[in-house]
Amino acid sequence: MSRETNRLVKQLKGSPIRNFDAAISDVKDLIRFTMGEPDFDTPEFIKAAAEEALKLNQTHYAPSAGVLETRKEIAKFMERKYGLHFDAETEIILTVGATEAITASMFTLMNPGDKVIIPSPAFPQYEYVAHLAGGESIMIDTSGTGFLITPEDLKATLDANPETKMIVLNYPSNPTGATYTQEEVEDLAAVIAQYDVFVLSDEIYSELTYDGSHTSIAKYIPEQTIVINGTSKSYAMTGWRVGFVAAQAELTREILKYHQSLVTCGSTPAQTAAGVAFRDGDEVTATMKAAYRKRRDILLEGLTAAGLQIHNPDGAFYLFPRIPEQYGNDDWNFCIDLARKAGVGVIPGSAFGPAGVGYFRMSYAASDENVSEGCRRIVAFLDELNGK
Question: What region holds the Aminotransferase class I/classII large domain (predicted)?
Answer without folding.
Answer: 29-378
